[in-house]
Amino acid sequence: MKRIFFIVIGCISLVLGAVGAVLPILPCFPFLLLALICFGKSSERLHRWFTGTGLYKNNLESYVKGEGMTKAAKIKIMVMVTVLFAIGFILMSRIPVARAVMVAVWLIHILYFTFKVRTAEQK
Predict the structure, then answer these.
(1) Euclidean distance between CA atoms 11 and 88, whole angstroms
(2) Most exposed residue of 1, 21, 91, 119, measured as fewest CB within 10 angstroms of its CB?
(3) How far is CA 91 from CA 11, 19, 85, 107, 116, in A?
(4) What are residue 120's DSSP bridge partners?
(5) pLDDT given at position 24
(6) How far is the C-alpha of 121 from the C-alpha of 77, rounded, in Å?
């Protein structure tokens, strides 16, 4: 049952990541990373297949190897998260506690990608 759960979540994440690779409004990196983790926990065959795809090689390989992310990828992720959080912030105008939590999470996200995720050379 646990294996099937990880396969289903991995497949959903893979689809969302693929859509995010095409549409600039949806970040692909977190979904592809989740797919990688789920496939790794569920099936060695799916994991090998996914790590052989161009989607993985173009978006995740350098990060997984510890080389970091390109500056463009980091900026794209930070801009998209900022836009999505801004929309949520506006919609939560009557809930100040939720707004404070959103600002804190957004700030942690920006600081993490700025200072903790290494910037890889552009290929």
Answers:
(1) 27
(2) 1
(3) 30, 25, 10, 18, 30
(4) 70
(5) 66
(6) 17
Q: Is the pLDDT of residue 32 over 80?
A: yes
3-state secondary structure 14-81: HHHHHHHHHCCCCCCHHHHHHHHHHHHHHCHHHHHHHHCCHHHHHHCHHHHCCCCEEHHHHHHHHHHH
- What confidence score (pLDDT) does residue 5 get? 94
In the chain, the amino acid numbered 77 is I
Give me the residue label for tokens 């600039």.
Answer: 24
User: Which residue is associated with the tokens 């009557």?
Assistant: 94
Q: Give the pTM.
A: 0.62
